[in-house]
Specification:
The protein is mainly α and about 180 residues long. About 70% of the residues lie in helices and about 0% in strands.
Length: about 180
């Protein structure tokens, strides 16, 4: 019987190469790998938020959004689905949650004082959690079909750029609510 090492467990959860693991839209994520990627991304976001530097926070949210889209697409590959609706809902919820949380952590808005922001943050965060739970708990297909890809992610950098522009616009308007 082969002895399992910590390195084997890390490879199982986080893959061989961090760059291709987090930023590639090709391949498949099983449930454990998806959980590892989402946990790591959320820890990174919390550390970045704690720094309280606006530019660093904006860059961190954008980077994590890209990695989250890649993780969701890989997980959809594992389930043999295109997942366009899921990708769109995930993008919208990440944009709304991220913009609201970022401005709150930086002290520019107070979510507790503004009922609109409280509702936007609560609903978008709930949608985010439901989508993550769906991706985490749905079993993968026996036979993987790598040709299925969301039409939204045919050109991931372009879709990401559109999301970042929308994110900046939303953050600007949320500040004025």
């Amino acid at each position: 019987m082969k002895k399992i090492t910590v390195s084997d467990i890390n490879t199982c959860i986080w893959g061989e190469s961090p760059l291709s693991f987090y930023f590639s839209f090709d391949g498949v994520f099983n449930r454990l790998q998806f959980f590892g990627s989402i946990a790591t991304l959320n820890i990174i976001l919390n550390i970045i938020n704690a720094a309280g530097i606006y530019i660093l926070t904006m860059f961190g949210y954008a980077l994590c959004l890209y990695a989250m889209l890649a993780a969701a697409q890989k997980r959809m590959h594992d389930m043999n689905r295109q997942g366009s609706a899921l990708i769109l809902l995930l993008s919208v919820s990440c944009i709304l949650t991220g913009a609201t949380a970022q401005l709150h952590f930086l002290g520019e808005v107070d979510i507790a004082e503004n009922i609109y922001l409280k509702n936007i943050f609560g609903i978008s965060f709930l949608v985010y959690l439901v989508l993550q739970a769906f991706l985490l708990f749905m079993p993968g297909a026996k036979k993987k079909d790598m040709s299925k890809r969301s039409p939204l992610l045919k050109n991931p950098p372009l879709y990401f750029l559109i999301c970042v522009i929308i994110y900046a616009i939303v953050a600007y308007f949320i500040r004025d609510l």
